[in-house]
């Protein structure tokens, strides 16, 4: 098929509707292009539970093998399980998933050996160019004299063992935990990772079903954790965990059924990772995580490093600084001991270890890491992003106690509040995040900025 790759190839991955925007013939071209750009002689491929994933992943494998690369298929897996395989086997990898997108979507997340990201600036643009040319009829390179082999391998047990080797859960008190897998890959990984731990597991929506019959597998949207919150209360559970479709993100609910801020989880895990490393180390956080995060990092002997929003920036900073941990407001958590890649499962294990290692309920445990009031991300449609940003900066420019920075959009900081206003790369939107010491101040700043944007 001749595809519009401008709609298909995003900043960090490939994602679109099957078969309208792409199909197995195009997946085969992506496999060939991936091998050419990475110069790989062997790769590893995994896929999620979407109905189209097995066929697309095998087509990609055929394209890669035709170029001479040996292919290891690990079958059904979470995205962080694919990262594990890429790291442990030291091979470039491809994961077939569209994360939390609706059932008709599918996509590819690609990485180099050791789970190093492939994005627009690290190979994805070249892959897109090759696929575009070949799909339009340009001659493809000759097939390899000796095609690569395609073999299958199960990595789930090894993945679980690796994670459990990074967090000591042997001495925790028994915990009752409700897990909402959202019919996604958490239903595949959680039973194996949690096996043998002192946990009373209450599973929700563990059946693998890429049509998502119960709710969208995106736990950052409050409506998608309503079932989990109710079940935690009904069961009298100690906590709840919700995974997204490809199970690389994890969202936490406390014993009262209240959602725990991903920034609080970032701070909690940062403190634990710093303790593991003798009270030293660099922790990466994006600029819209809570101010609690750098405060907790410093209090525990670490050095916080602030970066732009987006996993490619976090991973680059992790590698560049030799950081031990990184976290984002979107519930992505990155670990040096997991090849700088993100794994919600490892963050979940840290929460279980922290909770089970003492007697307080989760709400009290995380209170010390959740010090401020945040607005969450608020989107506004605007006609001119640059003009709106200029208007807001001008409105605050006359105040003496305010500082500005433009690391990612516009960040305005006062002694007792801050906000960040960023332009979407793909839509005519501005994204606002506000944080303050109390609800009243946060609301006032939020409403003032929204009035300037929308007025």
TrEMBL record:
It holds the Pfam family PGM_PMM_IV. Its EC number is 5.4.2.8. GO terms for molecular function: phosphomannomutase activity. Residues 377-450 form the Alpha-D-phosphohexomutase C-terminal domain. Residues 7-135, 158-257, 267-372 form the Alpha-D-phosphohexomutase alpha/beta/alpha domain. Keywords: Isomerase, Magnesium, Metal-binding, Phosphoprotein. It is an enzyme of class 5 (isomerase). Gene3D superfamilies: Alpha-D-Glucose-1,6-Bisphosphate, subunit A, domain 3 (3.40.120.10), Alpha-D-phosphohexomutase, C-terminal domain (3.30.310.50). Its cofactor is Mg(2+). NCBIfam families: PRK09542.1. Belongs to the phosphohexose mutase family. This is Phosphomannomutase (EC). The lineage of its organism: Bacteria, Bacillati, Actinomycetota, Actinomycetes, Kitasatosporales.
